[in-house]
Amino acid sequence: MFEILLLIYLFPIMVIAMLLVKLAIWIVRNLFKFVLWLVRTLFVLLGKGLLLAFAFVVAKKPFNHPPDR
Q: Which domain of life, per UniProt (predicted)?
């Protein structure tokens, strides 16, 4: 009799614990995906910024002016 009562009381607790573990795994997985997206976006923006800075440096050089004599 005690075992049946124990199972009746523990079953909802086990279900809730299982759902909490699933929720924790889902949160960790989505957080990992978000961090990867953030790092990838950061590197893309850094690359575009370096390309823009290089374009500004190249644009300031007088390539199309005649040489000074």
A: Bacteria
What is the distance of C-alpha 36 from the center of its chain?
3
Distance from the first to the final alpha carbon of the chain: 108
Whole-structure pTM value: 0.63
Task: Give me 59's structure tokens.
Answer: 């644009």
Instruction: List the alpha helices (DSSP H) in 1-69.
Output: 2-60
15-55 tens-digit pLDDT: 999 999 999 999 999 999 999 999 999 999 999 999 999 98
Distance CA 6, CA 54 (A): 71
- Max CA distance (Å), the chain: 108
